[in-house]
Design goal:
- The structure is a single chain.
- This protein folds into two domains: about 1-35, no CATH class; about 45-155, Cytidine Deaminase, domain 2, CATH 3.40.140.
- The protein is about 30% helix and about 20% strand.
- The chain is built from four helices and five strands; from the N terminus they run ααββαβαββ.
- The protein has helices spanning about 15-30, 45, 90-100, 120-135, and strands spanning about 60-65, 70-80, 105-110, 140-145, 150-155.
- Strands 2-1-3-4-5 form a five-stranded mixed β-sheet.
- The chain is elongated, with a radius of gyration of 20 Å.
- The protein starts with 15 loop residues before the first helix and ends in a 7-residue tail after the last strand.
Length: about 160
């Protein structure tokens, strides 16, 4: 597992011993160690992280936020809709992406019906989100549809 520590802390000390003590104290109080996540390589890896809403009876629309190395920073469920629809607006989809300084996003939503086929609305929303992302400089890498049993990538289908 790969780890990274970034420290940008300036302070004054009388001597090296005091400097080391201050540095240790600062790090002990502020350091957060967490493993580096690996880069997302496939829609299956994304679909596997959607277990919490794959079997839900309402559509859930989720966004994965990625850094410049395609590592997941976080994810957020943006909308919970009805049995066969979900209200999606670019403003909600990109608000967190902007605040987290994301380089790219991956959209995911479930189809409670069990069908993996993207609807005309799915395709239209994806195009609208991709255009909005292009305008603000956040790339839309994919839009994945998940069901209880499987998944389908709109990118692999040539629709993103």
């Amino acid at each position: 597992m790969e780890y990274q520590v970034n420290v940008n802390y300036r302070f004054q000390a009388v001597n090296e011993k005091e400097a080391k003590e201050k540095a240790v104290k600062y790090l002990a109080n502020t350091l957060k160690v967490q493993p580096m996540s690996k880069a997302v390589c496939s829609p299956l890896e994304i679909a596997d992280q959607c277990w919490d809403f794959r079997k839900k009876d309402k559509e859930h629309f989720c966004v994965f936020f990625l850094n410049t190395q395609n590592q997941i920073i976080s994810r957020e469920i943006i909308s919970i809709g009805t049995l066969n629809a979900s209200l999606i607006h670019p403003r909600e989809c990109f608000r967190t992406a902007i605040s987290k300084n994301c380089a790219s996003v991956i959209f995911v939503h479930n189809h409670p019906s069990g069908s993996l086929e993207p609807s005309d609305e799915d395709i239209a929303v994806t195009k609208r989100l991709k255009d909005a992302g292009k305008l603000i400089g956040i790339e839309v890498l994919d839009h994945v549809i998940v069901t209880a049993e499987s998944h389908k990538s709109l990118k692999e289908q040539g629709l993103v």
